[in-house]
Amino acid sequence: MKLELKHLAPYLPYGLKFYRPYLIYSGGSEPQPDHDEWGEDEVTIENVKIVIESGMPIILRPLSDLIQTITHQGKSFVPINAVKGLFGWDYLFYDVYKKKEEFNLNAVKYACLSKLFEWHFDVFNLIEQGLAIDINTIQS
Hints:
Blueprint: H1 5-8, E1 17-24, E2 32-42, H2 48-54, E3 58-60, E4 70-72, E5 75-77, H3 79-82, H4 89-98, H5 110-118, E6 132-134
Parallel strand pairs: 3-6
Antiparallel strand pairs: 1-2, 4-5
């Protein structure tokens, strides 16, 4: 599978980042990527095509982080508790965690999906497919 605009578009209003090699200048006219040094950049309308074509992975949270304390925009909270009982989260917790089923986008209300996109959760299973990097594995 290949990263597509349909995977990125829902995250764009929320500051989605991608992981890219730093560019180094070796004296030539064109900078060269240094694959030993990586950094984060924001995916924007202007660079979304480059992100898709280059194959550089986006940075997302696995769904397992729903029951972990996360920090988003300087606030720490447990996502499942932040909206407990709202937006179909009961379905999400039961089916995805207890029954180990695939995440079903059609069964979750839009308000719930908006929160998942805002908090950068991997609703499309992109981490497992190698198209995204788990935010928990990046060394700051």
